[in-house]
Amino acid sequence: MPDSRATVSSDASQAVAVVLATTEASDLRCSAGTLLDRLTGQLATLPVRDVHVMARSSDIIHVPGGTHMIGTEGPKGLADDLRRVAKAARSSVGPVLVVAGDLVAHTEALAMLVEHPARDTCALVGGKDEPPGPTRPPVRIEGRSVVAAGTSFHEVGETNGTFRGALQVGVPDLAGFAETTETLAELAEAGGFGPMDGGEVPGLLLVGLVRSGVQVRAARLGRLHADRMTVQADADVAVPRLAEVDENEARLDAAVKSDDGFFATYAVSSWSRHLLKPIAGLGLTPNAVTGISVGLAALAAVWFSEGTRPGLIAGAVLLYLSFVLDCVDGQLARYTRTFSPLGAWLDATFDRVKEYAVYLGLAVGYAAGADVAGGGPDGIWALAVAAMILQMLRHMIDFSYAGARADASRVGAAWTRAAGSLGRTDSLSRAAAADDAWTGGGNPILWLSRTMEKASPTRWFKKIIVLPIGERMALIAVTAAFFNARVTFVALLVWGGIAALYVLFGRTGRSLSR
C-alpha cells in the first residue's frame, strides 16, 4: 500500500494545524530537540498544509519550505489565545487542527484526525481505564461521539474517557467554532473561568464545540499513546514509551469496529483483520471487496434455489463468506482511509440487495418441493414477501430516526449559538441538563437503556435483540442449513417483529426525552 505520508500536498482542502505552544512544557527536551520540534516534525509528515505555532512571545508559521516568524508581541493571556484560534478558523479554507504543543503522541494518533477522509470535527480521546487529570480533561462518549467535555471549571457526569489535547474542526463547523471561541474569549477576559490558564485552551475549545451542539467524532486511541507533558521527567519516560507500540498493528486494530454486533464481533472481526494487509497488498479497493461480497451472496441465492440439503448448506457457507467480506470492506476502508460517501451508500444499498436476493433464492428452492422435508409452495411466497416488507419497515424507521436526530441537532446547534452564554451559570446549567439526560431525566425508558449499557451481558443483549445484519445473516444461514426456508422466514418474522417493536418503543421514549 502506498505511504500517504510521503508527501504533503498543498491542496486547500487539507488541514491547517494550530499548535498551542503556550506552556513551558513545549520546550521540554527530547531526542528531536524540544517537544515542540518533535510535534511540528510529525505534522510535516502528515497531509497538513500549514502549521501555525502560537506562543506567548511570538507567532510562528511552519510550512514545508521552512519556518517563518510572522510577528513578536508581549505576553498574551487566555483570551488572546482563544481569539487567535478563532482568527485562524475564520481564515482557513480547510479543516483546522488544534493541538497542544506539549503533546507526546504517536504520529498515527494524529493521523486518525487529519487523514480521516471525512475531514470532520473530531477529538483525540483515551479510554475510561486512564483516570482524568489536569492534562487529561474528562469526557463522556456515546457511540462514536463526544457528548460532554470538561475542564477545571466545567464538570462532566458519568465520564468514560479523557481528552488528549488534539482536536480537528471540519469546514462546515468552522464559522460556528470561531463564533463560540470568540464568546469563550470574552468570558475569559471577564474572569468567567476563574484561574484557568493557557494550558487548558484545547479542553476549553472542546467544551465550546460540544456545548454549542456540534457533533464531535471520538477518535479513540486504542493501543496508541498521546499525553501532554508537564515536567522533564514525564517527557523522558513518554517519548521512549512510544516505541513499545507497533503503529501499523494499532492501525489494523483501529480498522475493526469496537461497537459492532455480537456475531460480527466474535464470528468475523476476531479474525478478519488478518485479511486486511494481503487485500491491501493486492490493490483491491473497498468497493471491489463490496462487489465480491455481492457476487458471493448471489451464488448463495443460486444454491438456495436448488432446494436440496447440499444446496442449502452450500448457500449458508457462501452467505457467511459474503458477510465476512461485507465486514472486511469497511475495515479495509478504515485501514487504508479510502472510504467515501459513495462507498458507504453502495455498501448499505447492496446489503439490502443481497438480503432480498437470498430471500428470493430460498423461496424458489422451497417452492420447487425438492428433497427437503416440507417442501412445496405452501404459502412460502407470502412469508418471503412479509419478511421483506418487515425489513423495509425496519430500515425506514432507522433512517427516518437518524434523519430526525440530525435535523434536531442542527436546529439545536443554531439555537445554542443564538442563545448563548458559556459562562458559569449557563455552563453549570447545561452540564446539569446533560447529566439529567444521561441518567434518564425521569424517563424510565432512557434510564433503563443507560443502565443496560453499564454491564456487558445487558449491553450485548441490547445489540442482539435488535437483530442487526450480522445476526440476520447468521439466522438465515443456520436455519436454512439445518431446517428449511419456511423455518427461516418464520424465524425472521418473529425475531424481526420483536426487534421492530423494541426499537420503535425505545426510540419513541428517547424522542420524548429530548
What do these coordinates show?
With about 525 residues, the protein is an alpha+beta fold. Helix content is about 55%, strand content about 15%. The strands form three sheets. Strands 9-12-10-11-13 form a five-stranded mixed β-barrel. It has a two-stranded antiparallel ribbon with strand order 2-3. Helix 11 runs parallel beside helix 13 (about 340-365) and helix 13 (about 340-365) runs antiparallel to helix 14.
Q: Portion of residues in helices?
A: 55-70%
What's the main sheet like?
5 strands, mixed, barrel
Report the C-alpha radius of gyration, rounded. Answer: 26 Å
Distance between the termini: 46 Å
Q: Could you give the count of β-strands?
A: 14
Low-confidence stretches: 1-10, 61-76, 413-421, 424-440
Mean of pLDDT: 83
Structural class: alpha+beta
Number of helices: 19
Relative strand content: 5-15%
Shape: elongated
Task: List the strand order in the largest sheet.
Answer: 9-12-10-11-13
Write the layout of secondary structure elements.
Elements: E1 15-21, E2 29-30, E3 33-34, H1 35-44, E4 48-55, E5 58-63, E6 66-72, H2 78-91, E7 96-100, E8 103-105, H3 107-114, E9 122-126, E10 138-142, E11 145-149, E12 161-169, H4 174-189, H5 201-211, E13 216-220, E14 226-228, H6 232-241, H7 247-255, H8 262-267, H9 269-272, H10 276-281, H11 286-304, H12 309-336, H13 341-367, H14 380-419, H15 424-439, H16 444-452, H17 456-465, H18 469-482, H19 485-513
Parallel strand pairs: 1-4, 1-7, 9-13
Antiparallel strand pairs: 2-3, 4-5, 5-6, 7-12, 8-14, 9-12, 10-11, 10-12, 11-13
